[in-house]
Amino acid sequence: MAVTMNDVAKAAGVSLKTVSNVLNNYEFIRPATRQRVEDAIAELGYEANLTARSLRSGKTSMLGLVLSDLSAPYYAELASKLMDAATKHGYRVLVEQSAAEGAAELNALQGPFRQLTDGLLFTPLSISADAIAERAGTKPLVMLGEHIMDPRFDLVTMKNEEAAAALTSHLLAGGRRRIAVIGATPEESTGTAGLRLNGYRTALKNAGIPFDPALVAPAEWRRDTGAAAVAGLLEAGVEFDAVFGLNDVLALGALHELLIRGVRVPQDVAVAGFDDVDEARFASPSLTTVSPGMDEIAERSMALLLDRIAGRETADAGVHVKAEFQLKIRESAP
Predict the structure, then answer these.
(1) Which of 27, 79, 137, 191 sees the fewest Cβ atoms within 10 Å?
(2) CATH number of the domain at 5-48, please?
(3) 60-158+295-323 homologous superfamily
(4) Phi-psi category of 286—alpha, beta or left, where left has phi over 0 and alpha has psi -120 to 50?
(5) pLDDT tens figures, 135-156
């Protein structure tokens, strides 16, 4: 005969509710009680019937997370923080990597992945707001990032323009006047790259310095392309005394290229990034960057999604949240 939750409760000397709380990994359970329940589960060989539980409750206690590229340090660190936040509330997270492909993003909205989860944290890069609205269904959905900033959807993001302006102003205050930007095209004004470039242009304008499109180098957001972009600027004879990589991996690639070419950092060229990934602290020299409030993004997006699932947040319009940022001033641009 199969072991039941009642059997576990009797063996552990606790209530059925306590067994359920342990199985759902609720945070506020005394360690000794949790240990008794876990010991009883192991001794009796109890296996939870997740399918039956979800049919009874209509909930799976699973959340979905769709990101474009888990090899990118920012996304990897954000995913880890979101999983920690979910665990505190008794949820687990299923992660899907979309590779910024429209078909994969649409499948995450409608396929089995969506059916297995109670709500979705979503970073779309390819599909439109209307395409999402057509397929979003009734389960809660919280957007992360800047690709879709639509009043129909809940959104948690960062202060891209304000933070980029603050970082550029810091470089200007250090006497830099020819600040190269890596990771955008001169005409961009939307999306993550465009918003950060807007902040850079605002800081230049406030300082009375004209915008020079020759200082803006397009590049995919990777280390190797950051290095290649700086190499291209040097070989083209573009003069610059600072580099602003629109994310940290671009800046780290640029830093590497400058150092192997004998350019002193920060004496000759200051280098700064954006995201404050863990690697930035351990670069040599350590990287000045923007900390965009990753902890706050994780906590607030998780809280908003769970409030929607539980019916605690009932606003018809999307709730939009922008996390606070900090400048992390380090050796590469003191």
Answers:
(1) 27
(2) 1.10.260.40
(3) Response regulator (3.40.50.2300)
(4) beta
(5) 888 899 999 998 888 999 999 9
